[in-house]
Specification:
Blueprint: E1 2-8, H1 10-22, E2 27-33, E3 40-48, H2 53-63, E4 67-71, E5 89-93, E6 96-102
Antiparallel strand pairs: 1-3, 1-6, 2-3, 4-5
Helix pairs in contact: 1-2
Bound molecules: ligand 2BA (2 copies).
Length: about 110
């Protein structure tokens, strides 16, 4: 069994959850925060059999789009001068960042 952890944009999370359920995957959705943009994103935990990993990746690929997002200017107040950015910067955020991990044990009590 594998655990797929997929970090996706909030805008894609409903579409992805529906597509996973339609394709008979079980998933848990977590509200997370990206370290760089410091704004919300969504992380899916999907536990599935090894043979279904490719299908899960296909569902994720088809449900999530990459987009440009504006990074808000960072205020100098309270921060250090190194991270001070005085103007908005456009950042390309990927459709999904996906990790596939081995599951040592799976229990449901
Ligand atoms: P939910 O996805 O909201 O599922 C709640 C309950 O609905 C499940 O309980 C199961 O009894 C039933 N269920 C879910 N998907 C189903 C399906 N495709 N067909 C028939 N019945 C289905 P649990 O199995 O005890 O799971 C409780 C919660 O644990 C799930 O909430 C989900 O958040 C998480 N979970 C379970 N298996 C998971 C997995 N393989 N990967 C990630 N999260 C899992
Ligand atoms: P954030 O950390 O908010 O990053 C959003 C986007 O900003 C990234 O998109 C990337 O294009 C850019 N970015 C991030 N760090 C950067 C840096 N040090 N310099 C320049 N640009 C940078 P994605 O790479 O598609 O990542 C989207 C989200 O996926 C990330 O949100 C983070 O929450 C997660 N993520 C990406 N790589 C990860 C990793 N290796 N480990 C854990 N989470 C990761």
């Amino acid at each position: 069994m594998k655990l797929i952890m997929a970090v996706v944009q909030d805008q894609d999370s409903n579409r992805l959850m529906n597509a996973l359920v339609e394709n008979n995957f079980r998933a848990t959705k977590l509200a997370t925060t990206g370290g760089f943009l410091k704004s919300g994103n969504t992380t899916f935990m999907i536990g599935t059999e090894d043979v279904r990993v490719e299908k899960a990746l296909e569902v994720i690929r088809e449900s999530c789009k990459s987009r440009e997002q504006l990074m808000a200017p960072v205020s100098p107040m309270g921060g250090n001068a190194d991270s001070y950015i005085p103007y908005p910067v456009e950042v390309s955020v990927g459709g999904a960042t996906v990790f596939v991990l081995p599951i040592e044990q799976f229990h449901q009590f």
